[in-house]
Design brief:
two-stranded parallel ribbon, 4 strands, Neurolysin, domain 3, mainly alpha, binds zinc ion
């Protein structure tokens, strides 16, 4: 699809210029209530906040992969081979938890197995997601949601299974489309997608131009915020999936599993648009599309391709959002906002324990304040909207550090004697 993509870039830039922007990248960066260049600098600042933690995780995972596969496959130093991370894009590493799990500490439960053992089916998974939001005081989903959503993969036709949420009429016709499987990943994805729907419904009374998220990172963060609570053993016990929540001895396995998805994701969430900004600006042309992609993969993620890539390769085209043309920095931002929301919500709920064990299930006052933020839609600059719920006016990755603090300390100990970085 490389020639098609190059043609698309030219056409898209033409449209952006017609709207008064330098190129499509500048148009995308203009959506954050600040100058496009200031926004780019803002993402750099955020990355610097989380980079040391990412490097600790990278270092630990690399050492475990080296033990598993040997020097010839995964050397002790340098980048990690992207095909060893259990994910087509190396963007989330949770699938290799079994390879990198801490020695001598086992988890007493496995959400995949719990869901199966308790007889969950796709509809029950979605009902459980709805129930979480209902516990916060949100009105139930409309009957049409259940009639019109696509929840299981249909047998009689091809569909796009990439999960998504839809608002059909700007009123009540909200729906999801996902080929739900009964597992922990989809359990989280349901909370994510429903977050879009509840947000859409919350801002439906705004004037048409304001019927959107405060910025696009907010739209992605709402449901992830819900999923942060819904993934805790505290919550799994609250809804009867787990008989007894494990003690603090299982905090590290839990945090490591979470970090393999959420922290490993950060540099990827940043680099997809770093690459596109360069492509749209013309700094990178079709002949170097793939080289520039892997240069960023190395720089931010510390990953390398398993072997030389052919001259005509177009690896970024394999990422849904590139040909689908969905901006990606929103996911990077959402991976920070969700922890800011979570930290603020747990404080409002009077939670005393560590953040990673906090569940705001059934906290009506938290729900009321969260909905008050959501109802604002895009009616004011996003920092003011952020402030209404968190009291903070900046995107702040210190919430990420707070959440994962015990894990980062543990990683530093584990990494002793290693030369981290690449
Ligand atoms: Zn989403």
């Amino acid at each position: 699809m490389k020639p098609d993509y190059a043609r698309f870039v030219a056409l898209s830039n033409e449209g952006a210029k017609g709207l008064g922007y330098k190129d499509t990248g500048a148009l995308w960066r203009s959506n954050y209530d600040m100058e496009p260049d200031a926004f780019a600098a803002e993402t750099d600042r955020l990355w610097k906040q989380v980079e040391p933690f990412y490097k600790n995780l990278h270092c630990y995972v690399r050492a475990r992969l080296n033990e598993q596969y040997g020097d010839a496959v995964q050397p002790k130093t340098g980048p990690i081979r992207a095909d060893l991370l259990g994910n087509m894009w190396g963007q989330q590493w949770g699938n290799i938890y079994d390879v990198v799990q801490p020695k001598g500490i086992t988890s007493s439960y496995d959400l995949d197995k719990l869901l199966e053992a308790k007889g969950y089916d796709p509809v029950k998974m979605v009902k459980t997601g709805e129930n979480f939001y209902s516990s916060l005081g949100f009105a139930p989903l409309p009957q049409t949601f259940w009639e019109r959503s696509l929840i299981v993969r249909p047998q009689d036709r091809e569909v796009v299974c990439h999960a998504s949420a839809w608002d059909i009429d700007d009123k009540d016709d909200i729906r999801i489309k996902m080929c739900t499987k009964v597992n922990a990943d989809d359990f989280r994805t349901i909370h994510h997608e429903l977050g879009h729907n509840y947000y859409q419904r919350a801002y439906k009374n705004q004037p048409a131009l304001f019927r959107n998220s405060a910025n696009d990172g907010f739209h992605e963060a709402i449901g992830d915020f819900a999923a942060l609570s819904a993934s805790t053993p505290t919550y799994l016990q609250q809804i009867g999936l787990l008989d007894k929540a494990p003690g603090a001895e299982e905090d590290i396995p839990f945090l490591l599993k979470t970090a393999l998805d959420k922290i490993a994701f950060l540099p990827f969430g940043l680099l997809v648009d770093r690459w596109r900004w360069q492509v749209f600006s013309g700094e990178v042309g079709p002949e170097t599309y793939n080289d520039a992609w892997w240069k960023l993969r190395l720089q931010y993620q510390g990953l390398t391709a398993p072997g030389p890539r052919p001259a005509d390769a177009f690896d970024p085209g394999a990422k849904y959002h590139v040909p689908g043309n969905t901006p990606y920095t929103r996911y990077f931002l959402a991976h920070i906002y969700q922890f800011q929301f979570h930290r603020a919500a747990c404080k409002q709920a009077g939670w005393k324990g560590p953040l990673h064990r906090c569940s705001v299930y059934d906290q009506k006052e938290v729900g009321r304040r969260f909905n008050a933020m959501m109802e604002l839609g895009q009616s004011q600059p996003w920092p003011e909207t952020l402030k209404t719920f968190t009291g903070e006016t900046r995107t702040d990755a210190s919430a990420v550090a707070d959440y994962f603090k015990p894990l980062n300390t543990w990683l530093v100990t584990q990494n002793r004697g290693q030369t981290c970085g690449w």
